[in-house]
Amino acid sequence: MRSININQLQDQVSKIIRQIEKSEVIEVVRYSKPVAYLISREDYLRLVEQTQCKSCITDLRKIANKIQNSKP
3-class SS at 25? Predict the structure, then answer.
């Protein structure tokens, strides 16, 4: 992962966007503190889907536990 400051981002926005499109993750810093991460749309969608999947698995485990606990 590469870090850039906000001024660099403003100066090189087209170049940075091309790099992000190739799945590079870029950390944006202001005054040496991370303030944002830039990722491609595809990476974002994959992360969102994984989060939803984790939620579904948690829900399924709760249901399975209820079923197991209700058995004599």
Answer: coil
Tally of domains within the chain: 2
Residue 52 confidence (pLDDT) above 80: no
Measure the CA dihedral 56/57/61/67, to 10°. 50
pTM score over 0.85: no
Is the same domain home to 4 and 35? yes
The single-letter code of the amino acid at 6 is I
- Cβ–Cβ under 8 Å, residues 3 and 31: no
Residue 43's alpha-carbon distances to 8, 30, 38, in angstroms, are: 23, 24, 10
Same domain, 33 and 15: yes
Over residues 27-38, the pLDDT tens digits come to 999 999 999 999
CA distances (Å), origin 7, targets 4, 21, 36? 8, 20, 14
